[in-house]
């Protein structure tokens, strides 16, 4: 079979299954069964498919996924994350858009501890959004920062999605995790700057709360020192151990999970019920991720075996596209896909083609991986099917309509696009820390 026909069969079957509503992982599984039967030789091919599937999740490098998930779930279900947000709110005094700034700083802090975009947005939306709307905040400044900062959890470690991307793409997981730190912080600073400038230009967007309690001296700083600094120590332990070369990603993830459990015990908030919920949620999320990894890895192998990958690679090579234009094309494709499918599906569809092309063009895989994470993060906020848009709709009051949620996301999408362009032309932001580590 010619590579064009093989590519059409695999991708055509995949899109048909997804269009009729088959879940992503099962759609890929169905395509893999078809591909194994056609390209690997009937029953023998199905046996090889099983062996490849087992091998794809037997890698020790995947261990950080459940450990990072557990780390965030323990802090979330014990309520420590909420205490940290309250401490940050007390620390910020009367400034324009105070609660919007709290949502950015608090969301960034929780992102360094959880790695979960959904949990981040749901928690911040459930705690801060009602209060901001009650005080008369414009929906753009009430919902926008909460949704935008939720996506930062994909960049700043611990990030299960970054581990997944590194495993699927063959990128150093440690370097990819470290590479997302500076872009995530730059993005957070951009959000803060936008909120301050907008509120100074038009104070009516975020009315000041004259009745807000004022704390001075130690009463203002003590909750931050008690509820935030020790938790940030977990992030320092996880990232610092990787940066210093003392621990692998798996070992640093174990350090983080253990530190999170010890922290909840020290704060006397770890109950059997909270631990049970954290463990069950960790198991559920981890199984979903590993199932997706099985489907994606075997999909890539079948594309390679059928000749579709090498055929497409040869076609693009003949076009003599520059590495920069190739990267721009990849990012544009991810931005378009982000409007209609989720991040895991984007990785599963594109990585079998992107990584061989990047390797042939001599593109730095860490640089490309960080930009892919940012492009996929933007997909969380792009209408009509951005995941964080749906999460915000579920926690927002019924008076908030979906078009208002879309409008609230637009300014922050623009900031993320600027950060993506900045990294495209200043690669050091993505590769500087990983090179320091190595």
What does this structure look like?
The structure is a single chain. The chain is an all-alpha fold. The chain has one domain. It is 78% helix and 0% strand. The chain is built from 22 helices and no strands. Helix 6 runs parallel beside helix 8 (139-150), helix 9 crosses helix 18 (343-361) and helix 15 (272-306) crosses helix 18. The radius of gyration is 22 Å and the shape is globular. The mean pLDDT is 81. Pfam families: DctM (PF06808). Belongs to the TRAP transporter large permease family. Keywords: Cell inner membrane, Cell membrane, Membrane, Transmembrane, Transmembrane helix, Transport. It is found in: Cell inner membrane.
Low-confidence stretches: none
Q: What's the order of the H and E elements?
A: HHHHHHHHHHHHHHHHHHHHHH
Helix/strand class:
mainly alpha
Radius of gyration: 22 Å
Categorize the overall geometry: globular
Strand content: under 5%
How many beta-strand segments?
0
Family: Belongs to the TRAP transporter large permease family.
Subcellular location: Cell inner membrane
GO molecular function: transmembrane transporter activity
Organism: Parazoarcus communis SWub3 = DSM 12120
Topology overview:
Elements: H1 3-19, H2 24-39, H3 42-56, H4 64-77, H5 80-91, H6 98-114, H7 117-134, H8 139-150, H9 160-169, H10 173-179, H11 181-201, H12 218-227, H13 229-243, H14 249-266, H15 272-306, H16 308-318, H17 323-337, H18 343-361, H19 365-379, H20 387-395, H21 402-425, H22 428-437
